[in-house]
Predict the 3D structure of the following.
Amino acid sequence: MASGMLSGAQRALIRESWRRLSGSPVQHGLVLFSRLFDLDPDLLPLFQYNCKQFASPQECLSAPEFLDHVRKVMLVIDAAVSHLENLPCLEEYLCNLGKKHQAIGVKVESFSTVGESLLYMLEKCLGAAFSPDVREAWTKLYGAVVKAMRRGWEPLAEGD
């Protein structure tokens, strides 16, 4: 997870775009997750709290427990933005986060849909400030985060 994969200009674009969104992390996170459920409704059952299954994305998106999850996701993004100069320091944390996601049944393939949803949120919330250069910078950052999280995926033994 090399910090050098992002140029100084890309780090600046990421920081500036994130600063514009930092005042309303839950609101922006809800845009991300609304898009995620639109793109892949089959992810909804992964979000259960106290064994309660949500009947609809809208029910999930308004649940206090889910809003806590949204806050946590936005904090992970914030940590990545805050450590752009030293992304390797987050590697162990992200690897463990990957393990947690695997344990609840998240498939590695779902990260591409989450990435699409992140870019959608950035585009919707930044408007004209979401340039092709901003998109490329965020795509690189997200790729580095996912690469670290994928290291937490243990191959399951045959028969599991």
Observations:
- The chain has one domain: 9-152.
- The helical segments are 8-21, 25-39, 57-62, 64-82, 91-103, 110-126, 132-150.
- The longest helix spans residues 64-82.
- Residues 9-152 form a domain with the Globin-like fold (CATH 1.10.490.10).
